[in-house]
Amino acid sequence: MALTTIFFLILSVVAIGTAIGTVASRHPVVSAMNLVLHFLMLAGLYLTLNAEFIAVLQILVYAGAIMVLVVFVILLLNLGKEDSLETGFTARKGVAMTFGAAFVIQILILFTSAGSFTHEITDKSVNVGQVKNLGYILFTKYLFPFEYIALLLLVAVVGALLLGKKKLFLERDLPEKSLK
Amino acid sequence: MSSEFILLLPLIIVGVMSVISILVDAINPNSKNSGYYLSIVSIVAVGGFALNNFYLNISGINLDGANLITSNMLSFGGFSAFFDLLFSIGALLIVLNARNYLDTVKTELNEFYNLVLYALAGMMVMAHSNHLLTLFIGIELMSITFYIMAGYFRFASQSVEASLKYFLLGAFSTGFLVYGMAMLYGSTGSMFFPEITVAIVSGSANNAYLMFGAALMIMGLSFKSSAFPFHQWAPDVYSGAPTVVTSFMSTAGKAAALSAFIIIAKTIIPMGFDPTGLESAVNTDKLITAIAAISALTMLVGNITALVQKNVKRMLAYSSVAHAGYMLMGIVANTAAGWSALMFYAVVYTFMQIGAFIIVGLLERDTDKNLEYDDYAGLSKRQPALAAIMALFMFSLAGIPPMAGFFGKYYLFMSVINTGHLWLALIAVVSSIISVVFYIGLIVKMYFTDSEDVEGESLPWNASRMLVFVTSAVVLIIGLNPGGMLSFIKSAL
Amino acid sequence: MSDLTFTLIEFGIKAAIIINIVLVMASVEVYLERKISAWIQNRVGPNRVGPMGLLQPIADVVKLFMKEDLVPKAAFQGFHRLAPLLTLAVAIGVYAVIPYAHYVNIGERTVYWGIAPNINIGVLFILAMTSIGVYGITLAGWASNSKYSLLGGLRSAAQMISYELSMGLSLLGVILIAGTLSLNEIILFQRDGWYGLRWMVFLQPVGFLIFLVSSFAETNRTPFDLPEAEPELVGGYNTEYSGMKFGMFFLAEYANMATASAFLSLLYFGGWSLPFPEFWDSIGLIEGTWSRALLQFGSFFVKLMIFIVFFIWVRWTVPRFRYDQLMNLGWKVLLPLSIINLFVTASVIIFFGL
Q1: Contacts of B36 (CB under 8 A, 6+ apart)
Q2: Closest to C131 (Cβ–Cβ): which among A29, A60, A71?
Q3: Closest partner CB to B15 (pick from A148, A158, A173)
Q4: CA-based torsion, A51, A56, A57, A59: positive or negative
Q5: For chain C, what is the domain count?
Q6: What is the CA B55 to chain-centroid distance, rounded?
Q7: In a domain, C9, yes or no
């Protein structure tokens, strides 16, 4: 077995484990830390694909910035262990589980029976993950999507301000109803 | 200036102007009008250049080879120019109406108009997309803007609920969409739509992954166009969001989702493609049946649930689901006739739905009051003009013959009958008849029920009230001359 | 000896040496801190243990080891234990990419000084590791289940995120000029011009100042040591820690300080590069010889120590910021400044070339 295969197996098993841990844990901080570990594993997977730059960005942006903010908010709200809302088994849950299980089985059958994708990884993708190539392709081939993603991020910022700003509708935000 | 630059101008203008308008707001925070006027100017400019592109396309300028700036990730056909035009008309109506509506509830902010521009940009990218990536960016740009706009009345719990519900379910459905895209890419080895079609037609695509990916993408797009069984969010979001936002989401937003649906359907279900000769028989025609089933169920569920509604806004929300079902018939037909019928219906629907919502907004009080059927009792005596126009919109939505809505439905029905889906047309007719009950029910309430409140209050003459007349006039004109509209649309394809 | 065995042995030795250097450096810093603070405050400082108090750090460590390890009953046990480990591990992990000198030739093989100094994302690696380091402190604050600790953890998370932005943006100027993310290549760029003195600090003075201020905030040192502000928060995030767990935080703080100093000297002061490289070549100390490498290491070490002393000097001179001042400085001064700096740098490169 090649070294990359061993790394791939270890990383993906841990990644799946932590992903399940993120969803299954009832404690928000445990969930968040599982997710951080998951991101680190993903970064490792990018490394096995020779994409060091993307791997480090994965750590820097997701594990280092976004998840820190998530943990920050969890701490700020001082969230404790989540109370279970519905402990019993309900019909709604049963239906959801049935469909979910069906979906998973379908995917498993698909991946075991349908063979490989037609798109093979070629040798030229070895250099794709490097900074210069990435920058070059972003500003030539992917220029339009790149610029529009900037708009997408901007709208998220505008929305966050709009929904989170303290005083927005000066007359509306007063406690008593100010309307005639 | 290269010719591609001219074709790209609507997208550039809307992107740049949305940034500029937020900058103007930041530099001059006390200005009450900057957002309003800037957005009107930019939307009009976008519409103008879109119209220009539309006629450029008719005059036969083919720029597929000269696609350098966007490296073929966008297509600039008449199809997308038409949708650009439709979206900008929808956005213009929303902006003009929003001023009065937001002013009555004292919530006017420049950001609102800014958000309309972002949503417009997203929709236009969707209609232009020629690559999975641009499609995704367009969908997300539009959806995220809508999540925010749905929660614009953040002091009102139903608005916040609408926003949160829409966001959570929308994020979930985006997961399906992206998974489908990954499968499609894995199967065909390309993210460009024409290349995907080539891979399917030449038989080099992996069949199982292709079908799985296509099914997932149809699920995701069904969510965005609020089709059964992914329509559950629509009534709550449409009735919880501010009325002006609802009118935007349920018309232009829906048209954008359906334009993306057309693009995807065109790609993965190549027209007139016979797979029998190929070794790995890729038979995406099966998907047509699935879409037909979605369409039929959407119509039935939307109309039947709309029957029992007591709230006019909610009724319009459910009926909006049903109208998505009608429009999906154009995709089931999978012919140029079907698509042009869909586009025709999208135009008509945009005008009549926005018109109806403007009236609802005019009568609405304090963000969620005065919306019940009972509140409309005796409206013909209090506001005869508004009641008459509302009746006109209701007739048109129900598809009563001389109205534009009728011709929209007629073209859609004919397109599916011509492609051999008679059963679907029958279901559509049945559900249309069901829909008559609640549309006419509102007219009956307005005209034949008396209310104690005879005087009513006088509504001011403002832009919203003008728009009511404009939209109703458009609905009437299209109804009088449906052939002209249809040939205009057909020249796009 | 096969390549793989050689590599394994090489990296094993390097790792052992580097970890020890980091830990010894930390104790040297502790000693320096106490001595310098004493001089600044006109005191004598430690002078009982060993000659001139030189063995004081060892006594400190022994004391920490002997102490009882108290864990609050209400603490979240797992994370309470994990937090100091994480902090220290990240602080030491950064040293994997720092080059200490260029290289020496052993037989036919070239051995670089440093574990992976030539990795082509070195700069980003350091940023990524320090950003992971926040978790140690925030988790420590949260897991202790104490109000003071929680406030300390919160402050550190907010502070590190705020300053990471301007830090990263000011770094981009350096990266733009050098055209690489590899630490060794950035040093080579600084060596290959102006008689080995093409230091980034001359090319990027504003960026250097922003980076300097940000690294104070990133290492939680005064004047930005709000996460452990004693008058307000007792001990901040490490209030509920004792014994060697506290010691780990202590070590990590000093290791981080050394990292920041090393980073500053690498990026802005030429790192291990010696001024006037031709002169050294002419007297026979060519690249690849042990003597040249040792000289380079000396050059790096001197710069490192100067920065460490600077860090300590600032701590005992400048008073602590108020929290809103800290945030204002980060978001309203440093961030716009670093963006302008980046913009100007990029414009100059585009229009005038290098």
Answers
A1: B95, B99, B110, B113
A2: A60
A3: A148
A4: positive
A5: 1
A6: 23
A7: no
- Closest-CA distance, A172 to chain B, in angstroms, reads 7
If residue C110 lies in a helix (H) or strand (E), which one and from where to where? strand C109-113
Of B242, B230, B407, residue with least CA distance to B324 = B230
Phi/psi at C197 (nearest 5 deg)?
Answer: -120, 25
In whole angstroms, give the CA distance from residue B293 to residue B229. 10
**pLDDT higher than threshold 60 for residue B73:** yes
Tokens coding B302: 């939307």
Interface of A with B in 23-42 (CB under 8 A): none
In which band, very low, low, confident or very high, does the pLDDT at A175 lie, cut at 50, 70 and 90? very low
Does C131 contact A68 at a Cβ distance shorter than 8 Å?
Answer: yes
Nearest CA in chain A to B118: A155
From chain B residues 86-125, the ones with a CB under 8 A of any chain A CB are: 105-107, 109, 111, 114-115, 118, 121, 125
Structural domain boundaries enclosing C273? 65-352
Is the bond preceding B275 in cis, omega lying within 30 degrees of 0? no
Question: For residue range B77-116, what is the model confidence (pLDDT) as tens digits?
Answer: 788 888 988 999 999 999 888 888 887 777 778 888 888 9
Q: Residue A64 and residue C79: Cβ atoms within 8 Å?
A: no
Residue A177 has pLDDT above 60, yes or no: no
> In chain A, what are the domain boundaries?
1-81+125-139
- Tokens, residue C85: 């480990």
What distance in Å separates the CA atoms of residue C183 and residue C97, rounded to the nearest whole number? 8
Q: State the angle between helix axes of B336-363 and B254-268 in degrees (0 to 180), rounded to the nearest 10.
A: 160
Chain B contact for A125 (CB, 8 A cutoff): no
Evaluate whether residue C6 is within a structural domain.
Answer: no
b/e burial code for range C84-103 (CB count within 10 A of at least 16 → b): bebbbbbbbbbbbbbbbbbb
Q: How far is A86 from chain B (nearest CA, A)?
A: 19
CATH architecture of A1-81+125-139: Up-down Bundle (1.20)
Residue of A29, A35, A42, A68 to mutate, interface with C, max C Cβ within 10 Å = A68
Q: Which residue in A has a C-alpha nearest to residue C83's C-alpha?
A: A33
- CA distances for B390 relative to B125, B385, B431, angstroms: 33, 9, 21
Minimum-distance CB partner of C142 among A29, A36, A131: A29
CB neighbour burial string for B203-225, b if at least 16 within 10 angstroms, e if fewer? eebbbbbbbbbbbbbbbbbbbbb
Give ∠ CA B340-B117-B245 in degrees, rounded to 5: 80
